[in-house]
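RETRY 2/3 - previous attempt timed out on the joint model. Re-submitting the same 987-residue input unchanged.
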Amino acid sequence: MLPELGHFALILALCVALVQGIVPLVGASRGIAPWVALARPAALAQFLFLALALGALVQAFIANDFSVLYVAQNSNTALPLPYRISATWGGHEGSLLLWGVMLGGWTAAVGLLSRRLPELMVARVIAILGLVSTGFLAFMLFTSNPFERLPIPPVEGRDLNPLLQDPGLVLHPPTLYMGYVGFSVAFAFAIAALLSGRLDAAWARWSRPWTIVAWSFLTVGIALGSWWAYYELGWGGWWFWDPVENASLLPWLVGTALMHSLAVSEKRSAFKSWTVLLAISAFSLSLLGTFLVRSGVLTSVHAFASDPTRGVFILILLAAVVGSSLLIYAVQAPKVKSTGQFKLVSRETLMLGNNIVLTVSAASVLLGTLYPLILDALGVGKISVGAPYFNTVFIPLMAPLAVAIGIGPLVRWKQDSPGRIVALLWRFMLISAVAAVLIPLLAYGNVTPLAALGVGLAVWLFLSALVDLRRRLTNKGWGGFLTQPPAYYGMVAGHLGVAATILGVTLTSNYSQERDVRMAPGDSVELGGYSFRFESLSEVPGPNYLASTAEFRVSRNEAEVAVLRPEKRQYMVQTMPMTEAGIDWGFSRDLYIALGESLDDGAWAVRLQYKPFIRWIWLGGLLMAFGGLLAAADRRYRLAAHQERTAMATPLNVPEVS
Amino acid sequence: MRQKQRNRLIIALFVVAGVAVAAGLVLTALNENINLFYSPTQVSQGEAPAGHTLRVGGIVAPGTVQRNPETLEVRFDLTDGANALTIRYRGILPDLFREGQGIVAQGRLGADGRFTADEVLAKHDENYMPPEVQDALHTAEKLGLVKEQE
Amino acid sequence: MQGKYLTPLGVFLLLVILFIAGLGLNPKEVPSPFVGQPAPDFSAPALNAADAAVSRADLQKAPVSLFNVWASWCTACRQEHPFLMELSRRGDVPIYGLNYKDERPAALAWLHRFGDPYVTSAFDQEGQIGIEWGVYGVPETFVVDRQGMVLYKHIGPLTPQVWEERIMPVIRQQTEGSR
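RETRY 2/3 succeeded.
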């Protein structure tokens, strides 16, 4: 009964989305007020139906309703409850429903939280989002219905893929999707602005908080994914340049550029075309990522069900959304004029460089991701593009960008003098260069060019942030800390987050140590200054698996540091072996043990790893996201306060003119 | 006005130069890091270049897996039915590795004709298309009936 | 002025064309070394009668035969099955099966439930024959001629489209050539 209700709710949501997509848009261009007013309630209604549908699916999982095919494919009575719930988004249909719910959620949020924006603008934004929803819901209902029933329900389900039975799965897809879908708001704002022919500073100001929040979620999502892969896959790697990973990095890179470009558009009325194009691109890349992952055109360990029918549908959706938006851009963009002037040496120039570098790096990653497909389509052969390509291309692009991040906040808008900047900063560049060589040397005994580069950049970013802070606090004393706007601290946190991530990536990539050895109980191995002793092996049953658990005692200079228990699990239903690594985590290093295969006479192949500063990679990501949320909070506060001040000044409520 | 035009020109030059450098970097890196895929038969016919990183795929031929008891060196043959290629690898093999399993090995072909692998990847499952909901009845049967091969 | 604003759209359309082409391809496809070569000889018990044997000689009885690799645990096989039934009804080309890494009772039950399009199926429980034929997964279909040569190998479920566009031309070429 409940699954049927869920199905019905989806159908209702589609109908509402269709109305929501068309009526307010027509109403806005023809000036029909009741049609325009339909936007907000429609958005709310659609979200309500979608939430119902999701609730019905989650309930089916909780209740082990195997008459629902999707539940039977992804769950099992022995599956612990938290994973039965998160299994809802563990497969193609359910994750698509999650996408849809989030889209509905963001749209409803726009409806609820934008009371002070002009009605026509909001109506257009909601309508555009409604059209996107229509596409997604149609896709779901016609090709990927999560509520499909089995006439004869099986007694047991197929179980969730063991790799996905993990706390990381509970959080990673939802946060990632919040980011992907969140960029649709900036997209909708851009299209709405193009349609109305007005791309002014106000538009940029309204778009900013939505974009920043979406970006923050995406940052957390990517960081979570990397962290999850690290401890779950048993190889100690944290980024593989896998097509699905790239699919999340591409919107992030463009989203970062968008975030900064919006700031320039708002403050200086410059870069308008850039910003609009970036807004369209960020969401387009989100959709493209969805296409790549679900259509089967690329092979990836992550890929969902590859079905050409679905692929065709998503491609049509992608073509329709992106194609029409780029067409609107081509028609309307000539009318958009950026009025802000700036000199060669100015913050605008650096921001332009920011846009260009991020766009070029996104394009390079996209090329590397699609190249196998291109060559295959041309009949050249079957190839794969290795990780070295991406590293070779990405690092030389990011390095100058990191230097610019340090300089940017200190450069004036519109016009500045090179002499002033150099005088301000040359000492700190020198210190960074020296630290670049000294720190790795002192900490790890040797220094390579790449290690020096990374450390130097991280130190530079830290020092330049201090320089900026000192400049702002001059003549204000300590009280100055409190008078800085949250947006400033947001920026500081964001940029320091970048520094932390660069530091983590650099140190882990250059100074990790790894050994694959054969060990039997009683054996001891040295690595990274630590001693790893294989104490014992035992068989431990879990809720839906049987584990061979090894106990390792790790010590340093005779003192015990940790006891780790890596496991090799055999899951009952899917009969897949799985590796659970034993990790001793710390701020300055991780110690990582994974069991390989069981060899004869009780010995095991064991992988031991010493990974310095790897946590900093994800902590940097969290810091970046935190910075984003700080900055977003600032905008709304200012907007609300401004409105209150205006309202108090004029006792009459002047209706908004659009 | 001349100043502004000159500034625009400088920016444009920088951008073009930068993009050109980036493009050159991208194309070079791409060319050097494309891993071509070969079957054991193609390798035996001399189609695969030595010394360059490439990928070879096949099935682990039964009875050919040899492990060195002291180190973690392993040797096995990959076959595509017609020809076999001996693969050498040192390290931990993926969980799904076993005889008869589809495997892709990435590494280099030595002058002696043997392949030294840096990475060994196992195919996730032998179904060309993961579960499709074409016939709900069939799936119900399958779930209760047979041990999954995935 | 107008031209440069159309560039993003133009680039995107190129991408779409690429993806359309991409959907038609199969990234998991591996070229078969056997096409144009003699098929490996084999001998295996028949699925439904353990004392009867199936060998390559069976595939050489007709001008052209199909050798279809299937299993009861293979969902994609279920997809191509109605079409195989149709082909066997038409009777132009005999279809022989290779029951790959399966259990006899399960395999027989599967045929009983969904129909048996095969003249007979070879029972390859260990997958040894599959290895010799270079089978990477299921389903796969080989087209074999009277001389025991492999004319074509199709990877994935067999569809009417693939049959018309890829396999029929090969068969026609073969039957015309041998006249």
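The CA atoms of residues 74 and 138 of chain C lie 7 Å apart. Closing ticket.
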